[in-house]
Design goal:
single chain, about 170 residues, alpha+beta, Lipocalin, nine-stranded antiparallel β-sheet
């Protein structure tokens, strides 16, 4: 029963937070018209998720004041995201406290949902801690990222999809 209540609370919080970040994604819709549609970027596996807020499983909602992102390309995923929450085991060799890694051995599954919704599942084989990321993106640019780890509590991020940075 406790797990069901936690799941319901997480879903309700996620819906509320997604509504909060829609304003920014709509403001940046002109940038998407110039660089192409969200669907084409997702299909090409060439996009960046820019995080604006974070919600740990057992914590409170936080606005992010620094730039954090998840860069996806056909051959690698580069994660530079913060982590707030409880860790169960120390990861050997880890020197940072966030979700910072580069993965080259991963699967990228894309499903198109109803009403301009896209669901991307990233499963990692060579990342030391992160097992899976599920990114839900919408045609207006807003996005929601759920991260499941092997040694940490789940965490979620709200933000938007952007074209990849050419400088990186």
């Amino acid at each position: 029963m406790k797990k069901v209540l936690i799941c319901v609370a997480c879903i309700l919080t996620s819906c509320l937070l997604l509504g909060i970040t829609l304003g920014h994604a709509q403001d940046s819709s002109d940038a998407f018209k110039k660089t192409g549609t969200i669907g084409s970027m997702l299909e090409k596996k060439l996009y960046t998720f820019k995080a604006q807020s974070v919600t740990p499983m057992s914590g409170r909602f936080r606005q992010l004041t620094s730039e954090y992102d998840l860069q996806v390309s056909p051959d690698k995923v580069v994660s530079f995201l913060p982590y707030f929450g409880r860790a169960f085991n120390a990861v050997p060799g880890a020197t940072n406290g966030g979700l910072q890694f580069t993965a080259t051995d991963f699967t990228h599954t894309l499903q198109q949902g109803k009403k301009g919704k896209w669901i991307i599942t990233l499963k990692f084989n060579n990342a030391t801690d992160v097992r899976q990321m599920v990114l839900t993106a919408y045609d207006n640019g807003s996005a929601y990222l759920q991260v499941t780890s092997n040694n940490r509590d789940p965490i979620s991020f709200n933000g938007y999809i952007a074209a990849p940075d050419k400088r990186k």
